[in-house]
Write a structure and sequence with these properties.
Residues 1-23 form the signal peptide. Keywords: Copper, Metal-binding, Signal. GO terms for molecular function: metal ion binding; oxidoreductase activity. This is Tyrosinase copper-binding domain-containing protein. It is a single chain. By secondary structure, the chain is mainly α. The protein has a single domain, classed as Di-copper center containing domain from catechol oxidase (di-copper center containing domain from catechol oxidase, Orthogonal Bundle), CATH 1.10.1280. Helices cover 37% and strands 4% of the residues. The strands form two sheets. A two-stranded parallel ribbon has the order 1-4. A two-stranded antiparallel ribbon has the order 2-3. The termini are far apart. 46% of the residues are buried. The structure holds copper (II) ion. The site of copper (II) ion has 3 residues, from loops. The site of copper (II) ion (CU) has 3 residues, from loops.
């Protein structure tokens, strides 16, 4: 019987949050020097620490990907360019890698593939930056002024407010009070760049504007430093995966993953769509920060957590049984992760060390 244990585990997480809100996370950089097994790791940096030149280099690399031919249009008819291939890949794999335990491993390798492609296809010499939202979650005003939304050295801001969203075809199932946008992003380097697939679970050619629908109150609640500190305090991968992906689909159960997506995407923005969210370039910065949190958690008890894995292999299975109990198996290091259309299948074991196997990067 799963319900009582789910409640117990949620209660434990809440307790952990109360007791450890002031705990200082283990600094990732302190551990870096002691675990390097690859030489000269690429360093992923927080967006606001990049120079203006480096910010523009990343933005231009994204635009370069949008100018290169798709290599997977036979799979995803809507893919018009190389950037779209990654949106198509995400859409096609969504049901196998969200609200199940493949979530962190699958996205770690996705970011690696995308970063590698930025470098090889577009001569980009940097890395995927991360967005440490805790720095912007201190107040609603801080969020609105985040450097990631800068019109020149960022990704543009909110869409104009649309009060009535009843005629939208893709609307978040959860009502988010305090949503403030919904219109097309009109500032920044992606203001007039169409999103070619979605919104939602299809890969036909459906060009549409990039929408955002900021929910500042959700950001301050779900991606603040106390939530991150509580996340880092859990003892098992099962609990880490659970707390990052969220304890329920309602606001009180939302944590970092949902908070970053829905705080930006609201009820009708691309970032809120679990299928087509890579249509918003902020997807990459958000997921890099989640990957960083997983790595920080791993390094706090390394090497034991190099092999720490577990949780359901099936979407919406326990502890994500928001729609009832469904059958599942626990994932293992041998569980396959598929990137059909972009790269070969790997196993979870390949993703466990950001300085081992194919990976050689760190977080500053
Ligand atoms: Cu995803």
């Amino acid at each position: 019987m799963h319900v009582p244990s789910a409640l117990a585990s949620a209660a434990l997480l809440l307790l952990a949050q109360v007791n450890t809100a002031s705990a200082t996370p283990v600094p990732d950089t302190a551990a870096t020097s002691s675990y390097g097994s690859c030489s000269s790791p690429l360093v992923r940096k927080e967006w606001r620490t990049l120079s203006s030149k480096d910010k523009l280099a990343f933005i231009n690399a994204l635009k370069c990907m949008q100018s290169k031919p798709s290599q997977a249009q036979s799979l995803w008819a809507g893919a018009q360019n190389r950037y779209d291939d990654y949106q198509g890949l995400h859409i096609s794999q969504t049901d196998f890698v969200h609200f199940c335990a493949q979530f962190l491993p699958w996205h770690r390798y996705l970011l690696y593939l995308f970063e590698t492609d930025l470098r090889s296809t577009c001569s980009y010499t940097g890395t995927i930056p991360y967005w440490d939202w805790t720095k912007d979650a201190t107040s609603e005003g801080a969020f609105l002024n985040s450097p990631v939304f800068d019109a020149t050295y960022g990704f543009g801001g909110n869409g104009p407010y649309i009060a009535d969203i009843s005629n939208f075809t893709e609307v978040l199932a959860t009502t988010l009070p305090g949503r403030t946008g919904g219109g097309c992003v009109s500032t920044g380097p992606f203001a007039n760049v169409p999103v070619n697939m979605g919104p939602g679970n299809h890969t036909e050619y459906t060009p549409h504007c990039l929408r955002r629908d900021f929910v500042p109150s959700l950001i301050t609640q779900t991606v603040n430093s106390s939530v991150v500190a509580a996340t880092l305090q859990v003892n098992t991968f099962f609990d880490l995966d659970h707390i990052i992906q969220g304890l329920s689909l309602e606001i009180p159960g939302m944590r970092t993953h949902a908070g970053g997506h829905l705080g930006v995407g609201g009820m009708v923005g691309e970032m809120s769509n679990m299928y087509s969210s890579p249509g918003d370039p902020l997807f990459w910065l958000h997921h890099a920060n989640l990957d960083r949190i997983w790595n920080t958690w791993q390094r706090a008890s390394w090497p034991a957590r190099k092999t720490a894995i577990g949780g359901p292999d099936t979407m919406w299975a326990y502890p994500y049984n928001f729609f009832g109990d469904i059958p599942y198996n626990n994932i293992t290091l041998q569980t396959p992760l598929k990137y059909t259309g972009v790269a070969s299948t790997i196993t979870v074991s390949t993703t466990m060390d950001i300085q081992g196997g194919p990976f050689c990067y760190s977080y500053a």
